[in-house]
Amino acid sequence: MTNPSISRMPDPGQFVPELSDVSAALFRATGNRSVPRTTMNLVHLRAGQIVGNTYLTILNTAFLRKAGETEERITAVSSWQDALCFTDAERAALALLEATLQPAPHGRERVTDELYAEVAKHYDDKALATLTLAIGQINFFIALAVIGKPQPVTSLSDEQWG
Q: pLDDT (tens digit, 9 = 90+) per residue, 36-53?
């Protein structure tokens, strides 16, 4: 028995061919090695968890496994605040992502000066700009993932759209 497609829409790249250019540009911009790829994938995995998207959580879990990450660290992303297996720089990146994605308490900024200062302690200007773009990148893909609901895959070369 074949698996029926769970995708809500066909591949949006069929209708908006520029999507591949935008996607490639985002990967080039965030792939400058100023922020470790593992950190990017931890941030992207946490974003998938926050928005409750299986596609993003499976894909970024697979990326982390392929990079040799331990199951402990992958599993602990959902509770990173009290997990002992993350560096201070990774914690700062995860905190920045959460501040960006989640509503702030009434009357407060999402990204406080204190949080920005903490992140800036661990990332130079180029890395901070890259991390900011990586958070924007995952937000771009969140829209495609939660609206279009592509097939969960472990590689970007797998068939995602039914």
A: 999 999 999 999 999 999
